[in-house]
């Protein structure tokens, strides 16, 4: 009888390696729990509950990551959709650390007179009575924390996805919360909403491209599995047309998230419009996840096509450096400047990917490990820099104009000095992590035979150094701007800044430990 | 495990500098800064003594294993000369800048930055790992930048940025070469950045030439040679005399130091290949610097241009490839540090009283402030390499050594010696110190000859110059070891003496 009602379908329950997947699952569970808390807790308790949950989930997840790593867990998980290998470990660790630090800045309430930097009621029309009412009632969106955790979950899966379908789902999972978060700024709400809309439309476009590319690769190889695609590329019997189209379109999707020219257009507007803590989160975590996914797809699945994509990426790397660096030269807004700087950094990272040095020799760096180190150094500086951006204010709110930053050193030498340190790290000046990172990616490019790319990159580093130093000059030599002041922040902002400083110096002076970790994590499993 | 003296030597002033960022009174800060610089001097002398008695001070500890980079410090004759120059000049600069210019950052910050700079410079001179050297080479730019920005004159923002961008340009070109060295070393098996390991690779051919050029361009910018010298006069004119002393006296020496240690020490074949061009460039620098000095009206710019000329002599001696000329060059590096310090600081003392670096603002100072004038004369005579001054010995060695290699080039270089007399005596000394006493001079210098502190600064410098002038042998034999080792490694033999009339 029952067989008559139920369709006969042999469906084995998927097997999940709970323990090995625990870091992702914990973050995901915390995000779900956070949504539940929103529903059941009274407003006044939500903030404490959510922040506690974020920190606890982050710490627990990191702890599991370390324990699993010690225990030597590795291999394909969740029926082949996730690969737990060195790069996954490093990416998860970095995403958790930088993610939690960024979420801490979300929680800052001292700077805005007791409110977070997020809109009191993001759904109300800007300038409406509703908005004024909810502001006056001191409402706040504590949903930003679960949203952030969902994004983090997506990023972690994105960096470890071993089949293209998981990759795509993860992309959407981490993108959607980011679109929302971008539109939730308390000040300059229209700008923020415009940024969110732009990000959403362009992001949707690029997702569509990527999906199309995935479809082509599926048609070519008969599978979403990176391993199978690799084998199909090696023993290709069908014509190359499909794979070229597939490669191109999947690259567009991944390069969009990485912020590589010509798919970078969203970056300046979104970085500027989004609430600064969200920008900080996107600047490092999105980039980190996207770069790892990019490497995974191209190193694992499309390795056999490297002669095709290496020159293309080399050209894109140069274009990215040119646009990022030249664009940054003319900026007068500090967040836009950092956005262009992030584009330039994507170009520098790409040089190592072009090198495609995948030969794993014990204790030596591969392209992936150079990229990891670079992004770790970039991450500490980014977290710190954006946290400091939230501190510099005028009576209307954050002051992001370069003119407003003029003479900052005479008002608060420490804040100016710390920001200068982050600028120096971005510029790749020694004694900061940025230098070792830059040097590592250039080495990878040279070892891959792209010495000319190194020379081009070095020249653009010089131009890049100019605009970073311009910020330093403005802060230290400029006449003090009349209305700007440095806000008094709580530990929610200062802890990320201090960790950013310590991390930047640590990676600059004693990089060996992290470099060893990165070298250990330098080989993708297939 | 023996005590890591070289690490301690570099760390001591850095620790002192960092301590000075803690809040404290102005008097306490300056005293503490001076104490640290004197302690560093003591450690430096101790290092010299230990080195002299044959103690092996070198340290080699893994630093970044994945890249074959080591925390490797060591000291040879040339390094020791540079260490001594640095540790002696720093306390004197601190004394000379006891009262940094008003309206700028605090004296405490100045002392802190100078000490940090000293530590970084000491590490530059002791690093025996290419990456480590590069790291400190670039790191010295940061405190120097802030010394210019925080305490300099009118166009300090512009000058500091120009200095930094020129230096970074050189540094980044060098970075490409450093990265290339890694690729070469890694392709041989175990990557290593130790100078010793790299030197044994003997990187020749086109690759060696390109990599060498990356290093050389950086060092040409650093030891400013025409046409990449334009940052120096601007920077010197916009910084305080103390900063200029450290910059030209110590930091620019990294250029010539690097040429010997890295260009010659890692790429012997390529260095021999480039030597003729470098000798021509050196002569152009000598003459250009001297002529520009004669044409200067700003005393800081004048001193900076004399240094361009003097760096020309050092480079000439290095690329003449004779033991004599290279010994002379290294000795010159030491002496020029003291000589240029004397000039910059005495110019600073003048400007402190008169409030101007313009030569035309002075006249007849000798009659009002004879001690100042006397010190200025001695400093000037050391700049024109008068016999009896240490600079004479080194310049003579350079010229004698180079003559044996290439008399024509040397003949042109000798014009520079004549021009030196012009810019020192006819321009710098005569127009400021002699002649009728102007009203402003009377007002500025009446009863305000050199103070006790200022004398305490100048006496050791002049004494050093005279001591090395009359007793050059200990210093010469110390630096000669480096010259001999370099010549031997490069594989060039000294030209045979030509005996006239012998058939």
Automatic annotation (TrEMBL), chain A:
<feature type="domain" description="NADH:quinone oxidoreductase/Mrp antiporter transmembrane">
    <location>
        <begin position="161"/>
        <end position="460"/>
    </location>
</feature>
<feature type="transmembrane region" description="Helical">
    <location>
        <begin position="47"/>
        <end position="69"/>
    </location>
</feature>
<feature type="transmembrane region" description="Helical">
    <location>
        <begin position="167"/>
        <end position="185"/>
    </location>
</feature>
<protein>
    <recommendedName>
        <fullName>NADH-quinone oxidoreductase subunit N</fullName>
        <ecNumber>7.1.1.-</ecNumber>
    </recommendedName>
</protein>
<feature type="transmembrane region" description="Helical">
    <location>
        <begin position="241"/>
        <end position="260"/>
    </location>
</feature>
<keyword id="KW-0874">Quinone</keyword>
<keyword id="KW-0813">Transport</keyword>
<feature type="transmembrane region" description="Helical">
    <location>
        <begin position="281"/>
        <end position="302"/>
    </location>
</feature>
<dbReference type="GO" id="GO:0050136">
    <property type="term" value="F:NADH dehydrogenase (quinone) (non-electrogenic) activity"/>
</dbReference>
<dbReference type="GO" id="GO:0042773">
    <property type="term" value="P:ATP synthesis coupled electron transport"/>
</dbReference>
<dbReference type="GO" id="GO:0008137">
    <property type="term" value="F:NADH dehydrogenase (ubiquinone) activity"/>
</dbReference>
<feature type="transmembrane region" description="Helical">
    <location>
        <begin position="413"/>
        <end position="437"/>
    </location>
</feature>
<keyword id="KW-0520">NAD</keyword>
<keyword id="KW-1133">Transmembrane helix</keyword>
<feature type="transmembrane region" description="Helical">
    <location>
        <begin position="308"/>
        <end position="330"/>
    </location>
</feature>
<feature type="transmembrane region" description="Helical">
    <location>
        <begin position="337"/>
        <end position="356"/>
    </location>
</feature>
<dbReference type="Pfam" id="PF00361">
    <property type="entry name" value="Proton_antipo_M"/>
</dbReference>
<dbReference type="InterPro" id="IPR010096">
    <property type="entry name" value="NADH-Q_OxRdtase_suN/2"/>
</dbReference>
<feature type="transmembrane region" description="Helical">
    <location>
        <begin position="20"/>
        <end position="40"/>
    </location>
</feature>
<dbReference type="GO" id="GO:0048038">
    <property type="term" value="F:quinone binding"/>
</dbReference>
<comment type="subunit">
    <text>NDH-1 is composed of 14 different subunits. Subunits NuoA, H, J, K, L, M, N constitute the membrane sector of the complex.</text>
</comment>
<keyword id="KW-0812">Transmembrane</keyword>
From TrEMBL, chain B:
<keyword id="KW-0472">Membrane</keyword>
<feature type="transmembrane region" description="Helical">
    <location>
        <begin position="450"/>
        <end position="471"/>
    </location>
</feature>
<feature type="transmembrane region" description="Helical">
    <location>
        <begin position="31"/>
        <end position="50"/>
    </location>
</feature>
<feature type="transmembrane region" description="Helical">
    <location>
        <begin position="273"/>
        <end position="295"/>
    </location>
</feature>
<comment type="similarity">
    <text>Belongs to the complex I subunit 4 family.</text>
</comment>
<feature type="transmembrane region" description="Helical">
    <location>
        <begin position="6"/>
        <end position="24"/>
    </location>
</feature>
<feature type="transmembrane region" description="Helical">
    <location>
        <begin position="107"/>
        <end position="125"/>
    </location>
</feature>
<feature type="transmembrane region" description="Helical">
    <location>
        <begin position="408"/>
        <end position="429"/>
    </location>
</feature>
<dbReference type="GO" id="GO:0008137">
    <property type="term" value="F:NADH dehydrogenase (ubiquinone) activity"/>
</dbReference>
<dbReference type="InterPro" id="IPR003918">
    <property type="entry name" value="NADH_UbQ_OxRdtase"/>
</dbReference>
<feature type="transmembrane region" description="Helical">
    <location>
        <begin position="371"/>
        <end position="393"/>
    </location>
</feature>
<dbReference type="GO" id="GO:0042773">
    <property type="term" value="P:ATP synthesis coupled electron transport"/>
</dbReference>
<feature type="transmembrane region" description="Helical">
    <location>
        <begin position="333"/>
        <end position="351"/>
    </location>
</feature>
<feature type="transmembrane region" description="Helical">
    <location>
        <begin position="70"/>
        <end position="95"/>
    </location>
</feature>
<dbReference type="InterPro" id="IPR001750">
    <property type="entry name" value="ND/Mrp_TM"/>
</dbReference>
<feature type="transmembrane region" description="Helical">
    <location>
        <begin position="131"/>
        <end position="151"/>
    </location>
</feature>
<dbReference type="GO" id="GO:0016020">
    <property type="term" value="C:membrane"/>
</dbReference>
<keyword id="KW-1133">Transmembrane helix</keyword>
<dbReference type="InterPro" id="IPR010227">
    <property type="entry name" value="NADH_Q_OxRdtase_chainM/4"/>
</dbReference>
<protein>
    <submittedName>
        <fullName>NADH-quinone oxidoreductase subunit M</fullName>
    </submittedName>
</protein>
<feature type="transmembrane region" description="Helical">
    <location>
        <begin position="210"/>
        <end position="232"/>
    </location>
</feature>
<feature type="transmembrane region" description="Helical">
    <location>
        <begin position="163"/>
        <end position="184"/>
    </location>
</feature>
